[in-house]
Amino acid sequence: MAEPAQQRDARDKLALLLSLIPYLMDHDSVPVKDAAAAFEVTPKQIRDAVHLIAVSGLPGESRAYLAGDLFDIDWDALEDRDTIVLTHTVAIDDTPRLSAREAAALIAGLQYLSALPEHADRDAMASLMAKLERGTAAGAAQVAVTPAGLRDTIATVRAAIGDHTQLEFDYVSARGDSERRSVDPLRIESVNDDWYLRGWCHLRKAVRTFRLDRIDQLVKTTRPISEHAERVVLPERLFQGSPDDLTVSVDVAAATLPLIADYVPDDAPREPDGDIVHTRVRVAHYHGLKRMVARFAGQLTVTAPPEARAAVAAWASAGAARYAETTSADDEEG
């Protein structure tokens, strides 16, 4: 049975009204023609909706609609300049707001989604993130965002992913070796403060993960990605094991274990001991432990093998010595 035209028209007017109010609140001053274009309706429909807004509101304690209980607009601006300006809103500011922590979690999720090539409408996500920031009770808590030094790199990688073209760059491995790589970019994503590119490496003939802060001389080519990349199904885990990986035993705080889950092999033991878990992690090189130990200082301890403990101890001793030198120099200057 077809919906009556009158009922459908009332529903459309209500939908326009509910959408128009937050739109006007996000804009200090909006020409009627701009609002009409934004909602794909006629200027007359916008003016009719504005007049309806002006007689909408919530009754006060007296259960009567007094002046302060209704929306209001700048009538002179509407009549003289055909411009809409809200001068008073009702109940909107009284609605429950997200906490700073809740907004930060949503923003972080949107940042992750915007990094995936299948989500192309990044402008809409950026607009939503801005609204979440403004709509919190006390401003969103700070979350990991693109470091300033990597913005150009991330923009170039995203452009190549969107265009399905290859990248070329110099890459410094964890061992300090530098090689020129040709890569079919597949995905860019972040873990804590670090950003990574996953793609088909033509040098290694396999999928590899590259840390963006180790990439230099990045070039977006016009060569299309290879058939290998088109057939690749990326695993859920960011860090994949390799036959050349080294296994290291660690004691890690139970609350921290999920944060290093990508480094823990599936067959590794997870033995709880109070607030500590005895387990193993895999690394490409013992030097790679330095970053992990630094990030989780006081929460992760390397227990074996001796070579791994020695590498971390030497790094920590060198850092302490450097700190002592700096402190001594400052004292002399003082």
TrEMBL record:
Chain ranges of the WCX domain: 246-318
One Pfam short name: HTH_PafC
Span of domain WYL: 153-218
Signal peptide extent: none
Record domain PafC HTH: where: 12-134
Chain ranges passing through the membrane: none
PANTHER family: PROTEIN PAFC (PTHR34580:SF1), PTHR34580
Protein name (Swiss-Prot/TrEMBL): WYL domain-containing protein
